[in-house]
Amino acid sequence: MNIHEYQAKQIFAKYGVPTPRGIMVESVKDAVKAAEELGGPIWVVKAQIHAGGRGLGGGVKLAKSLEEVEKLAGEILGMTLVTHQTTAEGKLVQKLYIEDGADIKSEFYLSVVLDRKLEMPLIMASTEGGMNIEDVAEKTPEKIITVAVDPSIGFQPFHGRELAFGLGLTDPSEQKNIISFAQKLFKLYMENDAEMIEINPLIKTGKGEFIALDGKMGFDNSALGRHPDIAAMRDLTEEDADEVEAAKYGLSYVALDGEIGCMVNGAGLAMGTMDTINYMGGTPANFLDVGGSANAETVAKGFEIILKNPKVKAIFVNIFGGIVRCDRIANGILEATRLTDVNVPVIVRLDGTNAPEAAEILKNANIKNIIVGNDLGDGAAKAVAAAKGE
Amino acid sequence: MSILVNKDTKVIVQGFTGKEGTFHAEQCLAYGTKIVGGVTPNKGGTEHLGKPVFNTVRDAVKTTGATVSMIFVPPAFVGDAVMEAAEAGITLAVIITEGAPVKDMQAAKAYATKHGMMTIGPNCPGIITAEECKIGIMPGSIFKKGNVGLISKSGTLTYEGANQVCKEGFGITTAVGIGGDPIIGLSYKQLLPMFEADPDTHAIVMIGEIGGDLEIQAAKLIKEQITKPVVAFIAGQTAPKGKTMGHAGAIVSGSAGTAKEKMDALRDAGVRVVVSPAEIGKAIAEVLGKK
Q: Mind listing the pLDDT tens digit for each residue in A157-189?
């Protein structure tokens, strides 16, 4: 789960990680009020969406008067921001963060992320702040410093020294500041089950202090149960409505661009089904994993979500029953045809636990539009043909 | 022969008396797995499915001599359960539970390694040696005895792969579902050499997916150490970019993580890479010679 910049900064503040003062607002009127409260003389008006690259997209602007705050807030609020991290349709800006201007001497990059190879958190830092870090990694990898921290010993002073010297900081008070900054950041990463924290840019002020000018955080969904305060920060308007709806029923759904709706059990087989459709000359319309506890109701819901997409010309149900029982899926398909008008061909391949019972159920139901796929390859081929109207 | 588990392996179940634990322990017993007991705190001294229940893993190991534990406890307690097993002298923990926090698994795996305990999973179907020992949730009937080893990140693709191999007239020695979480136990790197050393395994099916770089590491190892034919499929060639991977996470291993990159590395290592999982059975028939 991801959160907004203003929320990340609330967490930073709780741990003593320095940030500029700021106020989140949802209207132009409140934006001006917030600017008055902060006092100025310089403010930054920042669009709050769950995507990077906001500045380049025109969602972050500097204001030098209250009138300018009002004007910029009016422009940014309600605009649709397109950045390299959003879809082509972009994201609607519904929240603004009004922030104090900062005295920037130089810009750095700092992040904490799980290194899957080392199996421990990794702190990454760079003097190339404000840049797209992936570009830095590609063009000048030597400008990225990495320090792995074994959680069983925690953040030690030597980790801090590696960072400080790695960033070329020679002033002892600056060294002390960055070490303290990183130490607090690591603590909050661990204590909140963060998946990643990224600060870009991290700025050094004229006084040699380090301040998080931006803040991006993602959390381990599996650990949200023990962090109700963080779970409460979830902003559903930032997520795909169909994905959220699907998740309520234990379905994992991702919309794609193609024509063949997919309903599969297991994430690997779901991806493998998409790959097979593609390999046979078709295009998958979605990823949909019905999960291990699929029943008639969830399958019917899956159909409803898939059929909402007007591009869908055929549906491929591909189930290899282990925990999932095929007869339940078959009943779900019947249920779906009762509840919704399934007006496209449905290719059904059911294998594994209780597959013979499932075949019997479908045969007896005698529904038009249902085509039996004998195995994965056969089912995918029939789905591709059906989508082409063959 | 087989790897890691066989008909003599003594298994206990952590989370034995819960709904999932009960259902699957029953299935494993029916398959022939030597489940010698289970652990549920405060139910020690009772019997469940005709097997003794213990309060702690230490008690269970002392009384039954079990070496393997199958873990079904709820996600928040997985870390604790794994560390308890390691401390009690279990040598292999098979973690079925889905949704364990990554931080807990990080600590638990590091601790298990320190105690010399291997782990499989979490969030996986488990391990099965065909017609001998099933420790997990896979439908046992698919796995006929044969000469193909199987390693997979995905549960249902394990079934798909094994089913195709058997339909072609071959069978399985041992199949291991390693799980697809960010931190997992045994992976290709440890399992491939085990299959290489197993005289009954003549070919290996390896099923991977996008994210991380375990498949790249595997390709390197195959090039250097594995002489038996390997058939591989990588799921997610058509998956949209950046949908599940965090932005900062993508950088750690450079450009690692795409299906294409993994497939290229495996091909370069001499692996027979199939583009669709529907081709796994046929590819095995090709490398082993039609039956």
A: 999 999 999 999 999 999 999 999 999 999 999
- Selected residue with higher pLDDT from A354 and A28: A28
Whether B24 sits among the annotated catalytic residues: the reply is no
How far is B103 from chain A, CA to nearest CA, in Å?
A: 7
> By CB neighbour count within 10 A (0-12 exposed, 13-18 middle, 19+ buried), where does A258 fall?
buried
The encoded tokens of residue A329 equal 């899926």
Pair A271, A345 in one domain:
yes
Of the residues A101, A134, A169, the one at which a domain ends: A101
The pLDDT assigned to A172 comes to 96
pLDDT higher than 60, residue B248:
no
Alpha helices in A225-375, H assignment, sequence order: 228-231, 241-248, 267-279, 296-307, 326-339, 355-365
ipTM rounded to 2 decimals? 0.90
Strand partners, A352: A321
**Average pLDDT of span B264-283:** 96
CATH number of the domain to which B113 belongs: 3.40.50.720
DSSP state of A286: E
Q: How many CB pairs under 8 A join A and B?
A: 173
Give me the mean pLDDT over the A351-368 stretch: 84
pLDDT at A65: 96
Of the listed ranges A233-242, A285-294, B108-117, B176-185, the one predicted with least confidence? A285-294
A101, A122, A138 - which closes a domain: A101
- Chain A residues near residue B235 by CB distance under 8 angstroms: 268-269, 271-272, 275
State whether B116 and B57 are in the same domain.
yes
Q: Are residues A14 and A28 in the same domain?
A: no
- Tell me: do B63 and B202 sit in the same domain: no
pLDDT tens profile A110-163? 999 999 889 999 999 999 998 878 788 888 889 999 999 999 999 999 999 999
B115 shares a domain with B144 = no
Q: Does the beta-carbon distance from A268 to B110 stay under 8 Å? A: no
The reply to whether residue B249 touches residue A133, judged by beta carbons under 8 angstroms, is no
Hey, are the CB atoms on B247 and A380 less than 8 Å from each other? Answer: no
pLDDT of residue B242 exceeding 70, the answer is no
Domains in chain A: how many in total?
A: 3
Give just the sign of the alpha carbon dihedral A374, A378, A381, A385.
negative
Tell me: do A226 and A357 sit in the same domain.
Answer: no
In terms of DSSP bridges, do strands B118-120 and B92-95 run parallel, antiparallel, or are they unpaired?
A: parallel
Domain boundary among B91, B120, B149: B120
Name every chain B residue with its beta carbon within 8 A of the beta carbon of A272.
154, 157, 160, 233, 235, 276-277
A25 and A84 co-located in one domain: yes
